[in-house]
Amino acid sequence: MKTLHCRDAGFDCNEVIRGETEGEVLSQAATHAREVHGINPTPELSEELSYIIKEE
């Protein structure tokens, strides 16, 4: 299981996004960024986030 902690991306947010693949996590993170933080995800943001995805 791969996880991404929103707080690790610099947000004051306790959301933890989980998925089987990095792509799945990034897709869910993009939706979360738009809906919760009002951020339009970019390929550059996805690349940055890929470095903080952890294997649990």
Q: Can you offer a commentary on this structure?
A:
This protein has one domain. Helices cover 43% and strands 18% of the residues. It contains two helices and three strands; from the N terminus they run ββααβ. It has a three-stranded antiparallel β-sheet with strand order 2-1-3, with helices on one face.
Radius of gyration: 10 Å
User: Outline, from the CA principal axes?
Assistant: globular
Number of domains: 1
Counting DSSP E segments of at least 2 residues, the number of strands comes to 3
State the strand order across the main sheet. Answer: 2-1-3
The assigned structural class equals: alpha+beta
Biggest sheet descriptor: 3 strands, antiparallel
Helix content, binned percent? 40-55%
Mean pLDDT: 96
Model regions low in confidence, pLDDT < 50 over at least 5 residues: none
N/C terminus separation: 5 Å
* Quaternary state of the chains: single chain
Secondary structure tally, helices: 2
Strand composition percent? 15-25%
Helix-strand pattern: EEHHE
